[in-house]
Design a protein that fits this description.
Layout (H helix, E strand, L loop, with lengths): L11 E3 L2 E13 L3 E12 L4 E2 L3 E10 L2 E10 L2 H16 L1
Antiparallel strand pairs: 1-2, 2-3, 3-4, 3-5, 5-6
């Protein structure tokens, strides 16, 4: 794990293949508890290529000078992301 929240990544390699490829991230909050929104793609073995964009919101807690994941919520599709954006937009403008 990382001691700096900017260095946290969800890249994951297995057998020499980057199975989860982080394509972007936004740090939503910093501190002892940090929240990060990731954009990523997963390797699809059957297609021998990466799949569509996916998104994940993850919470990290700094313990012994290292950020450790405590919770996550995966947004599984573009459609679900759009619904989430629409709901949040409605709520923050009320």
């Amino acid at each position: 794990m990382a001691s700096n929240i900017e260095d946290v990544t969800i890249n994951y390699e297995e057998d020499g293949v980057l199975v989860v490829k982080e394509t972007d991230k936004v740090i939503l909050s910093k501190g002892a508890w940090a929240t990060v929104l990731f954009r990523y793609q997963q390797w699809e073995k059957a297609k021998n290529d990466y799949g569509p964009d996916r998104y994940s919101i993850r919470r990290y807690r700094k313990i012994d000078d290292e950020y450790r994941q405590q919770a996550k919520f995966n947004i599984s599709s573009k459609e679900q992301a759009i619904k989430l954006i629409e709901a949040l937009q409605k709520w923050v403008t009320e």
